[in-house]
Specification:
Blueprint: E1 3-8, H1 13-22, H2 24-27, E2 31-34, H3 36-45, E3 50-52, H4 60-69, E4 75-79, H5 89-102, E5 106-107, H6 110-122, H7 127-134
Parallel strand pairs: 1-2, 1-4, 2-3, 4-5
Helix pairs in contact: 1-3, 4-5
Length: 140
């Protein structure tokens, strides 16, 4: 069972809802998390149970970042709007930085999200084992 978080900027929420709806069969059985409005919108059209945090600008991005820092997430699908300035941009940057520091896969667009979710569907999403295998100093 994977722990997956969904985040979407306002102009990307419809795209996120459509994406999660299309892959609902893949997400069933995994632990799902989201920022407030995104999670609510997904739950309105699917049968998925999603633990919702606060809205991104009110601290939800930081709450999900805390999960990353505590090694409690396996994947984040974060559909960002690159054409709109966000008032909480420092929080977004901090979250993406944490994903890089801790090696958490994060999809920031629908194409990357599709590749990662198809890997999950195939049972081909063993990134933690790969990181462990190629990490310097491990099993030497």
């Amino acid at each position: 069972m994977l722990k997956i978080a969904f985040i979407a900027h306002d102009r990307k929420k419809d795209e996120m809802v459509n994406f999660v709806t299309a892959y609902e069969h893949v997400f069933v059985g995994h632990s799902l998390y989201s920022t407030g409005t995104t999670g609510q919108r997904i739950m309105e059209v699917t049968k998925l149970d999603i633990h919702r945090y606060m809205s991104g600008p009110l601290g939800g991005d930081q709450q999900i970042g805390s999960m990353v820092a505590q090694d409690e997430l396996d994947l984040i699908i974060f559909l960002r709007d690159p054409l709109m300035a966000q008032p909480h941009e420092p929080d977004i940057t901090a979250l993406l930085r944490l994903c890089d520091v801790y090696g958490i896969p994060v999809a920031t667009n629908i194409a990357t999200a599709e590749i990662l979710v198809k890997a999950i569907d195939r049972g081909d999403f063993a990134w933690r084992e790969l990181v462990h295998k190629y990490k310097p100093g491990v099993d030497e």
